């Protein structure tokens, strides 16, 4: 496709009128990109710190193929419709997977094998396995990882990675792919648990003698992913595309890199892998749409739920390995396998382990992190105590030092260090039925206060942003509230509701003030909409039927009635469309006010609230799976779309208030309510 005027080539900067691969690019760069996609050779690493493509200099790009290709990816030339199609992609993945399976079942490494060759670009040389050699679980596990690493090195995009990025990529994703392929092989054989090809258990025999390793944990590792496969009845094409999405997920690479302590991908590597993930995502969605037609969207979300199960299985295997190495230190695989596992960072270092909170030497693993018994006990007590932790006297910097004496004195920083290292694990301190009961009780109390109470004349404004409860006065039966009165009460009772949540006591006073200001109004919106929805209305109003807008706006012609109705009805329409239940509303409201976090919060505050948002998100997903079964992931996505409707309604209300202050400056609420509104906006 040509353009009427010349523009600069997005890659090299030369003037061109051509449009290739979704970007303005000259014929030379278009041809180079096409050749790069088809050549089987690896690019040589950049000698200029991968900075060549930041300059529009053709002579530099011509010399550095690595940077020239990554510049092409950066400007969007990696377009699926241009260089691949679904049938070709699936055929290529099928061929690679069959070769991987052949290597796994029939070959073995020679005695001359060197572990350092594993992460190089060239293939590892292997020999045919004699029939008289019987593999044990260590042999099978090693060959499974080796065959998968060789499989990953033959993918299209790995030849475009630098040597360091290739090592990081192979180290971080090979084991998640090993989990997926092992589950698929057992599923194909119609088994209900993972095992090796000859029927051997994936765990060593000696595990049975270790009482501290729970049989429930072992069975969960064996069966959890296969049960999901059986439930979804996954086809081979779906498995191949899913596996491609799993190993091309940059977020997953960074997640597992942080555990295995090897370098993350560079910016160019992350963009490249992310671009290919988009290709595989689009291909899976295309396959689902073709194979399942109207149900394609639902099937796509069901398949993506497999990632969560893979991640959970991976986490369980981590726990098992830590326990196994601690309680069975003498049971080790052969020396060559041990060298490979250590190189892949899949064994704990032989050096002493330290508590990730206080730095004290420990061998314990509690709440998802290496931590001593004192820190785990402190964390457990902190979650159950009802009083705030107090304030830090050291500008919240205590947790940046490994000093136990400091931690013992500063409970605030010690707890936030626990959160930072990942100890806030939903499975350890909460469960869905208990949380639903608590949220339901708190929301009922909020509704009673909104309807039956009012603001006293001697109201103390400073009590709004304290840990203590706000004191209300009982409302007189003959008292009629205006829209200003109702709006003010809704804001105060929403803040009172939010202050009852567990994590509030862990915020500093300054963070508490910022958090309540930035989040309370979104909760006002969803709670008001839910109350109107429960009354079977199709627009938002206050409990006595009062309109959410002041009566005086009827006399002002500048307000667009469509705009006002959009505020009244947009969120309501989404809730009616989804037919939201009370339990879904309660979990959504928790996610919404944890999602509306201000950038003014401290680093500790943001980390804490984001951790709790993940907890509530995980519990909502769990609830959707329990109540909607196969359609659980789709229901979860639909419910999260309510957050967008809340945000849009909030933005429209801001526009209305701006117009209201311009056109009706004299129409103000009573002085007390005006003081409250001004105090909330300080």
TrEMBL record:
Pfam (any one): zf-C4
One GO cellular component term noted in the UniProt record for this chain: nucleus
Residue ranges constituting the NR LBD domain according to the UniProt record: 104-343, 431-679
Signal peptide (from-to): none
UniProtKB keywords: DNA-binding, Metal-binding, Nucleus, Receptor, Transcription, Transcription regulation, Zinc, Zinc-finger
Family annotation (PROSITE patterns): NR_LBD, NUCLEAR_REC_DBD_1, NUCLEAR_REC_DBD_2
Alphabetical list of InterPro entries matching this protein: NHR-like_dom_sf, Nucl_hrmn_rcpt_lig-bd, Znf_hrmn_rcpt, Znf_NHR/GATA
Subcellular location: Nucleus
One Gene Ontology molecular-function label: zinc ion binding
Start and end residues of each Nuclear receptor domain: 6-77, 352-430
Family according to the record: Belongs to the nuclear hormone receptor family.
Name recorded for this polypeptide: Nuclear Hormone Receptor family
Organism annotation: Caenorhabditis remanei (Caenorhabditis vulgaris)
């Amino acid at each position: 496709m040509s353009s009427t005027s010349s523009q600069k080539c997005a890659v090299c900067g030369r003037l061109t009128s051509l449009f290739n691969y979704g970007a303005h690019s000259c014929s030379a760069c278009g041809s180079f990109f096409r050749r790069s996609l088809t050549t089987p050779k690896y690019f040589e690493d950049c000698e200029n710190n991968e900075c060549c493509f930041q300059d529009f200099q053709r002579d530099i790009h011509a010399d550095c193929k690595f940077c020239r290709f990554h510049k092409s990816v950066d400007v969007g030339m990696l377009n699926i419709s241009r260089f691949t199609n679904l049938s070709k992609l699936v055929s290529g993945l099928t061929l690679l997977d069959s070769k991987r399976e052949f290597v796994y079942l029939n070959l073995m490494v020679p005695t001359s094998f060197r572990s350092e060759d594993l992460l190089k670009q060239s293939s590892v040389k292997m020999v045919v396995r004699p029939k008289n050699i019987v593999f044990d679980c260590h042999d099978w596990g090693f060959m499974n990882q080796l065959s998968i690493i060789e499989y990953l090195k033959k993918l299209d995009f790995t030849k475009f990675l630098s040597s360091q990025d290739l090592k990081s990529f192979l180290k971080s994703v090979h084991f998640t792919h090993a989990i997926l392929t092992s589950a698929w092989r057992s599923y194909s054989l119609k088994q209900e648990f993972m095992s090796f090809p000859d029927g051997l258990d994936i765990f060593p025999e000696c595990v049975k003698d270790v009482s501290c390793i729970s049989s429930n944990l072992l069975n969960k590792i064996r069966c959890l992913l296969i049960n999901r496969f059986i439930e979804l009845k996954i086809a081979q094409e779906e498995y191949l595309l899913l596996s491609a999405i799993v190993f091309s997920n940059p977020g997953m690479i960074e997640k597992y890199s942080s555990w295995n302590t090897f370098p993350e991908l560079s910016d160019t590597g992350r963009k490249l892998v992310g671009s290919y993930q988009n290709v595989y995502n689009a291909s899976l969605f295309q396959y689902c749409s073709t194979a399942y037609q109207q149900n394609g969207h639902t099937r796509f979300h069901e398949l993506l739920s497999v990632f969560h199960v893979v991640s959970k299985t991976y986490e369980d295997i981590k726990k098992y390995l830590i326990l196994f190495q601690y309680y069975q230190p003498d049971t080790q695989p052969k020396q060559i396998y041990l060298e490979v596992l250590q190189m892949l960072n899949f064994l704990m270092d032989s050096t002493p382990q330290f508590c990730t909170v206080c730095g004290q030497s420990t061998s314990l693993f509690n709440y998802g992190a290496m931590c001593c018994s004192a820190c785990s006990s402190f964390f457990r007590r902190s979650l159950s105590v009802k009083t705030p932790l107090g304030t830090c006297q050291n500008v919240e910097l205590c947790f940046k030092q490994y000093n136990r004496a400091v931690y013992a004195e500063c409970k605030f920083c010690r707890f936030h260090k626990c959160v930072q290292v990942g100890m806030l694990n939903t499975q350890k301190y909460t469960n869905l039925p208990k949380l639903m009961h608590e949220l339901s009780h708190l929301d009922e109390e909020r509704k009673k206060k909104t309807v039956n109470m009012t603001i006293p004349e001697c109201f103390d404004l400073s009590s709004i942003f304290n840990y203590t409860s706000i004191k209300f006065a009982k409302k007189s039966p003959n008292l009629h509230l205006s829209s200003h009165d109702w709006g003010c009460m809704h804001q105060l009772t929403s803040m009172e509701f939010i202050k009852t949540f567990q994590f509030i006591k862990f915020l500093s006073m300054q963070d508490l003030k910022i958090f309540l200001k930035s989040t309370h109004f979104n909760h006002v919106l969803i709670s008001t909409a839910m109350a109107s929805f429960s009354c079977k209305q199709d627009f938002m109003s206050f409990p006595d039927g009062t309109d959410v807008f002041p009566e005086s706006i009827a006399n002002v012609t500048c307000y667009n009635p469509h705009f006002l109705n959009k505020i009244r009805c947009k969120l309501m329409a989404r809730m009616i469309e989804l037919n939201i239940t009370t339990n879904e509303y309660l979990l959504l409201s928790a996610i919404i006010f944890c999602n509306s976090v201000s950038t003014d919060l401290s680093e500790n505050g943001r980390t804490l609230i984001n951790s709790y948002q993940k907890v509530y998100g995980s519990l909502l997903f769990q609830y959707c799976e329990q109540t909607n079964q196969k359609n659980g992931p789709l229901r979860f996505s639909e419910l999260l779309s309510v957050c967008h409707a809340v945000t849009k309604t909030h933005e429209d209300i801001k526009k209305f208030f701006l117009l209201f202050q311009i056109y009706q400056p004299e129409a103000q609420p009573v002085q007390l309510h005006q003081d409250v509104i001004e105090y909330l906006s300080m």
